[in-house]
What does this fold into?
Amino acid sequence: MKASPSMKYHWMEKTYHTSGQTDIIDLSADLQHFVRDAGLRQAQLTIMVPGSTAAITTIEYESGVLGDLQRAVERLIPRNIPYEHDQRWGDGNGYSHVRAAILGPSISIPLIDGRLILGTWQQVVCVDFDNRPRRRIVIFHMIGE
Amino acid sequence: MKASPSMKYHWMEKTYHTSGQTDIIDLSADLQHFVRDAGLRQAQLTIMVPGSTAAITTIEYESGVLGDLQRAVERLIPRNIPYEHDQRWGDGNGYSHVRAAILGPSISIPLIDGRLILGTWQQVVCVDFDNRPRRRIVIFHMIGE
Amino acid sequence: MKASPSMKYHWMEKTYHTSGQTDIIDLSADLQHFVRDAGLRQAQLTIMVPGSTAAITTIEYESGVLGDLQRAVERLIPRNIPYEHDQRWGDGNGYSHVRAAILGPSISIPLIDGRLILGTWQQVVCVDFDNRPRRRIVIFHMIGE
It folds into this structure.
């Protein structure tokens, strides 16, 4: 444990163009960039996607397992069953909302001695569940010293 | 990035009366109140529900999609199959525990320039999975400057 | 709300030997130890498991409900269906990756007046979804004062 004379924060907003339909975007390069530029040593990071039809999680960014996640999500919360959201609003993306609520919009990761705590084959990803291509803003936020 | 002379924290405990059975409580008004009262500009917020039969997530607070989430949860982790928890303890809420463990008890959200990072139709909610009405305490917690 | 002259951080890395196959490890004792040793009063904690086949969540650590969670996970993301990850890499743990991505690798918990915000029967756990015994490192990280 160390006492620090001052707290610092750093944040970055980054736009991604997704194809929707459980498109999975690898945020690793931007995240590593963000951490390097900020130059903090000890911090907590939050990665968040505003909006109610996308989620943030981690996964090995390997096309086989990405497809496995996409198929699992389709099996668990299928596209082709009736959703009340669609009957009311005609958006056709009721399943997108349900999927996003179950996965969650953000994750937190510690930064220790300037090193982001992630496994070697573990990437931070944004999963876009919407039923159409979207322009997504992801927020990288850090507080520490 | 800015250096700050001091770190501040702020927290609020708020009680909600829920009907259980995947009752979904909109926390937005209290959350916005909390953020305004605290007056911080740069912070990380954690919203957490203590207890093992409720969860925190975000969703568009629209009755159609709330029903869609409730039906999805019922389909994925049904009430009317046997749970070992119930056979041991007779609580009848084994499904509530499993649902809560999958959704998770807390989420983190960045605050940037005094603005909470949420989508326009994205509300922070407490989902009460218990099998009976409950008095739930939700913790709003913020650290920053 | 209080202003603090300095921010402090504290972290601990702890190794657990798991049996894999949705083994659920109770982190409570180590977590309470960590909080006591750090001696902070107001903080945000992140508990994270690096790696893409394990997750962190909370549950009542009671063998009945642990089995219920294990059975639910097996029903939702079954072991014995084909996964593209396995066809490509022969790891045989495609289901482990999918399960971990859905539950998520970390959770955040507030610390208020030196007290960790958790329900009486709510334990923080690491769920190891891998298909074999693993040596898992869990990170406990705290920032506050």
Remarks:
- Chain A has a mean pLDDT of 95.
- The CA atoms of residues 54 and 128 of chain A lie 4 Å apart.
- The longest helix of chain A spans residues 63-76.
